[in-house]
Design a protein that fits this description.
The chain contains 8 helices and 12 strands. It has a single domain, classed as Purple Acid Phosphatase, chain A, domain 2. Strands 3-2-1-11-12 form a 5-stranded mixed sheet, with helices on one face. A 5-stranded mixed sheet has the order 4-5-8-10-9, with helices on one face. The chain has a two-stranded antiparallel ribbon with strand order 6-7.
Length: 280
């Protein structure tokens, strides 16, 4: 048995299929951890959802911002964005509701105590340790799976609050958690304020900010964390932190790495079609 973590697919099902063949993946034996953002922008979001769902218990998926946005469009009346063309095939599919039900039941964070490893899409604010993060993830998941989920989608958009306080409650608390898990890249090094507007590489981040995993005082230091979301960052493996978004949809590569073996190396499949123009 092998456990592989895989970076942002974003509808690049061709590369995912090639990657699984390259890994000699066997769903009866191996396990896959997906960092989220299965859908959008790439050409085969529908096929990606169908493929990953078909793997059953062999696949663990955490929700990314594009996955939540798909759910918000379908079940919360969220507005379409100009970049949402990759979601149209999902919305028109005959098995749409079954796929959305499955996606809506995915967690925001997964923790494997045996492997000593946690999986998330974007980041953890420096004030959070793993226990706090898991608690906040479960708070959001309860609302996500509740009867009035449309209210969550209505209130989840926005950048505030940007600093964690334990006394946060209501929609502010849930919005902060969703933003951390699905959008965080950099934060201020002094107070941990999330700077959600930054999408570029670390060297272009605002003065006084750092990638969330390089803030010296973060309470999750020493934990093994696997994440994606930051294509301009690319592959990162440092101090137990593994970043796997290598920008497949932008013409980069889809990356996997075995996480239950020491000294494992990334396995990559390039997007030979060229992908979309790289985001700023």
């Amino acid at each position: 048995m092998a456990v592989y973590a895989i970076g942002d697919v974003q509808g690049c099902a061709d590369q995912l299929e090639e990657l699984l063949a390259l890994l000699d993946f066997d769903a009866t034996r191996d396990r896959l951890w997906f960092v989220g953002d299965l859908v959008n922008r790439g050409p085969r979001s529908l096929d990606t959802l169908r493929l990953v769902r078909s793997l059953g218990d062999a696949a663990i998926v955490v929700l990314g911002n594009h996955d939540l946005h798909l759910l918000a469009i379908a079940r919360g009346g969220a507005a379409w964005k100009s970049t949402d063309g990759g979601l149209e095939q999902v919305m028109a599919a005959p098995d749409r509701e079954a796929l959305l039900d499955w996606l809506q039941a995915r967690p925001l964070m997964h923790h494997d105590a045996q492997l000593g490893t946690s999986l998330l899409h974007a980041g953890l604010p420096p004030q959070w340790n793993v226990a706090t993060a898991l608690g906040c993830a479960r708070e959001v998941e309860r609302r996500l799976r509740g009867e009035r989920v449309g209210e969550l989608f209505e209130h989840m958009y926005g950048n505030e609050p940007s600093v964690w306080r334990e006394e946060l409650d209501g929609w502010d608390r849930l919005r902060f958690a969703i933003n951390a898990f699905t959008r965080l890249r950099v934060c201020r090094a002094d107070d941990g304020r999330m700077l959600l507007g930054h999408k570029g590489p670390p060297e272009t981040a605002p003065e006084g900010s750092k990638p969330w995993f390089r803030v010296e005082w973060r309470r999750s230091a020493g934990e093994r964390l696997v994440f994606g979301h930051w294509s301009a960052l690319g592959y990162v493996a440092e101090q137990g932190v593994l970043g796997l978004d290598t920008g497949c949809v932008w013409g980069g590569a889809l990356t996997a790495q075995q996480i239950d073996a020491q000294a494992s190396r990334p396995v990559q499949v390039p997007n030979r079609a060229g992908g979309m123009p790289l985001e700023d």
